[in-house]
Fold:
Amino acid sequence: MFKGFSRRQLAKLAAWSALGASTASAKAGPTRSGEPKASVVSGFPKGFLWGTATSAYQVEGAVRADGRGPSIWDTFAHTPGKIVDRSNADRASDHYHRYKEDVQLMKAMGAKAYRFSIAWPRVFPDGAGEPNPKGLDFYHRLVDECLANGIEPFATLYHWDLPQVLQDRFGGWESRDTAKAFGEYAGYVAERLSDRVTNFFTINECGRFVEAGYGGGPDAPGLNLAQNRVNQVRHHVALAHGLAVQAIRARGRTGTKVGPAENIVVCVPAIETPANARAAEIATREMNAGYLTVILEGKYTDAFLAYAGANAPTYTTDDLKIISSPVDYVGINVYTPHYYVTAADDAHGFAVLPMPASFPHTSSPWHKIGPEALYWAPRHVAKLWNPKAIYITENGTSAADEPVAGGNVYDLDRIVLLRSYLTQLQRATSEGVPVRGYFLWSLLDNFEWTDGLDKRYGLYRVDFETQRRTPKLSVSFYREVIARNALA
Structure:
């Protein structure tokens, strides 16, 4: 593992966040003020959607099956020294062949929705041009299996597995051509799946794969570009999101819904006062300025452009119109508070506090345990941008997950963490924050990017040799939460 880089942590968040407290403008952005309210109710809103999540490269395996082309992660994972345990995802959790079994696991748990990703190189092995019908056929089968078992499919169109051809030909996300190719791919998939898939997420965690893949981090494609080029990459990803939204609107069935799924940088008030809550909103807006904020506001913030200076991305007014194409909801991945802040009596409006070395964390050292992040993240999104709906597209934790005598897995640490975080999410919904559903990461132990097979996030333990799935104790916990629509 590279110090400072791991699964959910942003390498630099974005260039401007290095300024800490000096990046925000207290005058910028719409918001509604108000003091946080305490809640003692344990239930979630009627119709709240409980699900699980995976991504194609992390679980499918079958990397050479049925005409799939190579992705940048195939190349990267086979490069010596890139993966901590020297594993790869050639087989992973073998979801490609075992999807029917895995759907039954979801059904037995009571899950009502499944967020999965579609592998772009399965559908377009060359990234664009001639599609591969056999690649999309897998997702037809998966969707049909979900629906037959009462599970609503939510499809993510990009979860980091860029076709290697586009990286070789255009420099990947450095080029507008890749953004255009993504729009075409999104439209093609929506045209063929939206008769059964109502909900699409465009791009997963821009903030992670841009910085960690192009900005000197450990992720594929493993580049260390100058900051102006990293900012341009991020702009092209935002443009790709907007082009995908437009393509889905044009080619999907009437009623098809779409939105982003971003690993939002969460800023939490260190002490819950109205002034500190406002400061945390300002900080959240600025710390997400290079992607989520521009998508939802149609402009880069003044603070972002001022700090970027000569490193600011090149863009047009038309780009911003495309990027800010209206969405139906906002998906946010929430694991940890990135910053604790207090109000500051200056032009910036907030101050970032240093994180103590003793701050509690999970088996993944980057994952600082701050359940309140699952309250403040959707609350900030609602107050800053007033979306129609919010989904928690990922939340969960790794754990040791070693079987004891008899083969049982008592992942009590995961249960304690989930209960604590869900308590905070319920607090948000009880105050009217429009969170419509929650996708627990993850259904299965899987290939955890640069951590390989070492870190286990699944509700079900996977023996990667035999592919046997074993329910952990957290399955029983989550089953009770779903059945009650309340904390168990």
DSSP finds 16 helices and 13 strands in the chain. The CA atoms of residues 143 and 153 lie 6 Å apart. The first strand starts at residue 49 and ends at 53.
